[in-house]
Amino acid sequence: MRDAGRRVIGRRPAADLRSGEFWAVRDVSFEVAPGECLALIGPNGAGKSTLLRMLNREYCPDAGRIAMSGAVKPLIRLGSGLQPMYTGRENIYLKCAELGLSKRDTDAKLDEIVAFAELEAALERPVKQYSDGMYARLEFAVATCMPVDVLLIDEVLAVGDVSFQLRCLDRLNALKRGGSALVFVSHSEMNVLQVADRCLLLFDGRTLAQGKPEAVFGKYYAAVGYFNRNLKALGALPVQPENCSAGLDFAVRRAEPRKAVPGQPLALALEYRAERDFGAAELQLEFWNTAGLLTATSQTGQLRLTCGQGCIAVDLPFLGLEAGIYSIAVSATEGGRLLAYRGEAERLLVEQLACGRAGGFGILEARFRPPTISSGDH
Predict the structure, then answer these.
(1) Predicted structure pTM score
(2) Structure confidence by residue, pLDDT tens digits, 276-318
(3) Cα separation of 68 and 236, whole Å?
(4) Could you tell me the CATH superfamily of domain 244-354?
């Protein structure tokens, strides 16, 4: 009711989240020009479909703005635009009329649409009798039979066979050449590489990387541990310990992840509560990615921790992590005895917005010396 009241007086809903609420999409920014295709990739629940529905004006953003120029054609929910009791032919005329085509124009395009969808034998049957693949072929054939300013596509090609997907990719490239702007959601790397000019990688509704498709897919696979999957059979992956406290404990600092950039400095503040003085505590930070892989550790020297509450400042001069979401765990030992372990003292969102090539699993700092000149004759 408070949100409704704020909307009545022209104010946005409160930014503070209530219990059980979360940001489905946040801090995402991009542009798509005419004749360009942007692919949205990421794991399930990353916010790709929500973002597409915001572009389709189904959801209004709570913050920020969306600006689009031209007519928008969505292919988001399979079969949502077809009338189940109408035949395939009747649906073609109905959907073409919605696109602004006259009956004469539709008559001229009918054979092309039917041939593309391969529905000659089922054209006079009600579409409620169609399979998912037939639904997808008919919807895609009608939606792309003429140029459109903005086309939104959400995994509608996943139900088609390989030959149909290849025809769809050719049609999408033809639309791009005609000046259409495409926003394409897909889990298929093959489809994305065939059509997309740029990729945007989403995790938990936030941008992790944006750039060339090949490089961004590399960031995606590294973030989810795809490249390390064969290590599990060898038993080589460390298992994260349970949280524990033996007179010392660390607080969880923030619900929202802290933002960082690869290769830049990072400053952290670790709040602790000690039941007594510790004269020689050794702290270690662990960076765990979303696949449960320990990607990096950072150790400190011996610290003196006084009884009560305190705060430890940690400065990392060079963050050698690739794009991803990391849980920062902190552990403390004294004389080889474990004092405390906190598995998610902080969450870290490492963004890499300019991604031109694949970079591996980490970043190594290096200094180059000037070349030496030999004094020989050559």
Answers:
(1) 0.77
(2) 999 889 999 999 988 788 888 988 778 899 999 999 999 999 9
(3) 49
(4) abc- transporter (atp binding component) like domain (2.70.50.60)
